[in-house]
Amino acid sequence: MPRSPANTLVRVTGNFQISIPKPVRERLGIARGDLFEAAATKEGVLLRPKAIADRAFLRELRQDVEASEADIAAGRVLGTFDNARDAMRALRNFAKKNKTKKRTRARRAV
Q1: CB–CB of 41/20 below 8 Å?
Q2: How far apart are CA 4 and CA 6, in angstroms?
Q3: Of the options 3.30.750.24, 2.10.260.10, 3.40.50.2300, 3.30.1200.10, the CATH number for the domain spanning 1-50
Q4: pTM above 0.70, yes or no
Q5: CA distance 57 to 48
Q6: Does the pLDDT at position 35 exceed 60?
Q7: Contact 36, 45 (CB under 8 A)
Q8: Residue 53: alpha-carbon gap to chain centroid
Q9: What does the mean pLDDT of the chain come to?
Q10: Residue 48: CB partners within 8 Å, gap ≥ 6?
Q11: What is the pLDDT of residues 78-99, one digit of tens each?
Q12: Pairwise CA distance, residues 60 & 69, whole Å
């Protein structure tokens, strides 16, 4: 099999470390400090990039922040407060004004 920049030999050092060749690092966008999960497979060692924070969580967080910013831009806020007591008072007043009637289900006769 001919060698390409992606197929280069690496040596395991005395500390069981390897250096990832520059063409491979550049192709995969690997930077210093990136984390990887190492797994043993039938074919050898598989390195999978890992992030400390879950990407799905970060995507959901980004969506929540965007929605919050849209609410602020649309004026859907209670205001600014000097302390937590004032914020809680405004929140309780808001809840009282917007209280919805609870629906009760009719009980079936047994």
Answers
A1: no
A2: 5
A3: 2.10.260.10
A4: no
A5: 19
A6: yes
A7: no
A8: 5
A9: 85
A10: 36, 37, 39
A11: 888 999 999 999 999 989 888 8
A12: 14
State the amino acid at position 30 in one-letter form: I
Return the domain boundaries, the chain: 1-50, 55-97
Q: Residue for token digits 């074919």?
A: 43
76: tokens are: 């859907």
CA torsion, ordered 22, 24, 28, 32, to nearest 10 deg: -40
DSSP per residue, the chain:
----TTS------TTS-----HHHHHHHT--TT-EEEEEEETTEEEEEEE-SS-HHHHHHHHHHHHHHHHHHHTT------SSHHHHHHHHHHHHHHTPPPPP-PPPPP-
Place of tokens 């008072």: 89
Give the span between the Cα atoms of 77 and 94, in whole angstroms: 11
